[in-house]
């Protein structure tokens, strides 16, 4: 059994426990800080923040043939629309029933422990992504 396979159930249980703690409590802050600090420390130890790391992999970076700001406009428009709706909702007092903001939607979703747990798991996964990539680079073996 690999380390990642052994670690996965522990992270799932940790997320379940941490997402059940009262929000904005001292314990809640500590349970957020533990994985955050662990990820940053591992990233630093593995050399993920060194300037040399960026120089070494510059030759490996490529830009797709269709990468441009003009092709990204639908995504940018969605981000701008989301920010605009959030601003309008907050300007209306933050509890508007007619303007669907991200914060009011999340307020309704975060009532259940299962949804908080799923969001906590997603947060851990996003945070671990740079570590996984760094780990893969460290253990990559060139094909023969």
Could you give the topology of this structure?
Layout: H1 3-19, H2 26-45, H3 51-56, H4 73-91, H5 102-109, H6 113-138
Helix pairs in contact: 1-6, 2-6
Characterization of this structure:
The chain has helices at 3-19, 26-45, 51-56, 73-91, 102-109, 113-138. It is mostly helical and 144 residues long. The protein starts with a helix and ends in a 6-residue tail after the last helix. 3% of the residues are buried. The model has no long low-confidence stretch (mean pLDDT 79).
In short:
By secondary structure, this protein is mainly alpha-helical.
Structural class: mainly alpha
Major sheet details: none
Counting structural domains, the number is 1
Strand fraction band?
Answer: under 5%
Report the total helices. Answer: 6
Distance between the termini: 27 Å
SSE topology string: HHHHHH
* Unreliable stretches covering 5 or more consecutive residues: none
Percentage of residues assigned to helices:
55-70%
Query: What's the multimeric state?
Result: single chain
Whole-number average pLDDT?
Answer: 79
Short descriptors:
single chain; mainly alpha; 144 residues; 67% helix
